[in-house]
Write a structure and sequence with these properties.
2 copies of one chain form a homodimer. By secondary structure, the first copy, chain A, is mostly beta strands. Helices cover 9% and strands 34% of the residues of chain A. Chains A and B meet through strand 1, strand 2, strand 5 and strand 7 of A and strand 1, strand 2, strand 5 and strand 7 of B.
Chain lengths: 115, 115
């Protein structure tokens, strides 16, 4: 707990060795699962402070405000965490599609039954 | 693609450096998110073959058949994958609680708004 690594909550969430925790994003109204993204302590803190989702991009290695460019922000209504405190479930009201492809959910494809 | 590393599908799913892919488990009827667990290629193959969820335990470093001991199995109705092909969404009909605590969902706690 240093100023460079702000601890976002009094709860001991378990971040992985890279300082990340997976965050499932679910539409609060339809209950559709929209995205699996990752947060670090800072993006979780910004999510709580702003009431909109902020994630950590593993490929770009930087914080990103979901919808900051596209306008497809996600208003957070609730953040849950699991029994092991190593995963988050973020309930949101999305302003637009969650997926960069334009799909409402990133999970728009089904695995074949007999691959 | 060797006999020791069966490739479960024709789709190029992206497993992480540890050979794992996160799998969100969602109740097909209520749409509640139940668990975030991890699969390796073998557990995904067993899931597809048996129609029940199999995961890879990172702590025990072994395959586990969800409900194999407790009886709280999960019948798989659909497996989806995301735009990046690095996360799964598994829709299930659960025979009992998903969580080892006895809770219906592992996400039974809410993060305080003002931690």
């Amino acid at each position: 707990m240093t100023p460079n690594h702000p601890h976002p909550t009094a709860i001991s969430l378990k971040f992985d060795p890279n300082g990340l925790i997976p965050a499932i994003v679910q539409d609060a109204a339809t209950k559709d699962v929209l995205t699996l993204a990752y947060m670090n302590a800072e993006s979780l803190q910004k999510t709580i402070q702003t009431g909109e989702t902020w994630f950590y991009s593993r490929s770009r290695q930087e914080l990103w405000h979901k919808g900051g460019t596209s306008g497809n922000t996600q208003k957070v209504t609730e953040i849950r965490y699991d029994c092991d405190a190593d995963a988050l479930l973020v309930l949101v009201q999305p302003a637009g599609p969650a997926c960069h492809t334009g799909a409402q959910s990133c999970f728009y494809r089904t695995l074949p039954e007999n691959p």
